[in-house]
Give the backbone structure.
Amino acid sequence: MITYIVKRLLSLVPVFIGITIVSFAVIHLAPGQPTDLMTQLNPKVSLEAKEKLIKLYNLDKPVYVQYIDWLRRLIRFDFGKSFIDGRPVIKKILGRLPITILINVCSMALIFLVALPIGVISAVKRGSLFDRSMTLFVFIGFAAPGFWLALILMSILGVQLGWFPVVGIKSLDFEHLSLIGKILDMGHHLIIPISVSAFGGLAGISRYMRQSMLNVIHEDYIRTARAKGLSEREVIYKHALRNALLPIITILGLSIPGLIGGSVIFETIFSIPGMGQLLYQSVMARDYPTVMAGLVIGAVLTLLANLIADIAYFYVDPRIRIGQRH
Amino acid sequence: MHKNALAIFGGSIVLILVLVAIFAPYVARSDPTAIDIKDALLGPSPGHILGTDQLGRDIFSRIVYGSRVSLSIGLVAVGLAAVIGVILGSLAGYFGGRTDSIIMRLVDIMLCFPSFFLILAVIAIIGPSIYNIMIIIGLTSWMGMARLSRVEILSLKEREFVLAAKVLGVGHWKIIVRHIIPNGIGPVLVSFVLGVAGAVLVEASLSFLGLGVQPPMPSWGNILMEGKAALGVAWWLILFPGLAILVTVLGFNLLGEGLRDMLNPRLRR
């Protein structure tokens, strides 16, 4: 187990370095120096900002020196200061993170709560009316742009019917509410954003669960379980489901990049002051330090999530553990 | 049979879309960029069957011409991704060893990035033009193709006909181009068709956020952006372009899934 984790950790090093190189390269993409680009194409940027940039990235030195210097500060979580308000980038991001995590955790929970039963029932009753209508639902779920659904729900439930607030996460009188009142108020604001961001994932995960379940149902040990005379219920929910859930662990790690992309869109639409909105605002304002930090942090989060998923998989699946020993 | 029916349905949607895009001037008679302020924000009526936007432009025309943007970005971007992915994946699978591990590491690295945010950031830096969008989507979405081609090549290169070519002294490139690519193209084709659906969604999202196709050029995403500005006032600005995206993505997805089932001999019964 320890050897496996150490091996896995070592394999992350080149990928991490690659991530930093790509993120660093993004800002050096434009012809000439990033400072030229900012001052020429964007007249809003002053000469002072240009000097700030030159100093921050050591732009008067060779590229590899700039990179190593940036990397050295990055490892200490020093992402520099925002061009917009001069605050440390890491503080800005940490301040915005809780609400984004809250929304994504809720929507993940919602996805699993709904998608797993759909996938299991579709697989067990393969070809039934339920399975076929869920297949249709999945195709539409894949095809409907999330931001479009968001606009539709906003205009029907928000503007026309007035049942839900359309923007932000708090009412004006938020500060005067009791703790329970605050939670309810925030929940009221977040129902549409959470449902919409869950919808996209729902299609994918239920499809994946269905496939995983179908694969497991044909295994020998399921036939053995049936032959032992176990009830169908026990076979499906005890023997098949547990094994079919394993591959889903991997999905959690793989879904992080999509969640970040989704947060950018949904938080922008609903004016939610989370990390997604911050990233969108920094892109629009060409706040390079924040953009670079967003790229690096997003990629490293994915890397770590995949690592955790692999270790968890290793831990829960005895077949892999035993396979490693040989 | 049921699977084939879905593929044919998806294929017909795609075919109709391509025809609409090519013959846009004949499908929609009014100019998609003609401004007419006195006709602003009209609901659907015989004159403007899908209504008009804030500047009085005909939404039906804008959606019809928008199909050109969506399809050309989808096809070119995914075409680029396919070329990069197939070349890198083939090299990795065919030569193995160090080449393989370097290329596959690169795939791992690129897969870690939140691709939508990466695309957004790069577009903001180099500027939103239709060509930049094609290139950036292509450069950030080749990884699946690379993995696919690599696996395909790994299984093909041990097959008798490839070994026979090797024994006969045929060069590496000729083996790859003549014997391996034609035999492994099926899964790549499926991935291409599904990829177009994804690229159409990415372009729509970019344009919706204002970093995609720039007005006055019509795109489904930027009509939706105007729809958001008129939220609760003009439902037709939201409903119709969204349906266009939905139908397009659905068409490509059905076609792709159908092709996959047809090409997979294990599923053929």
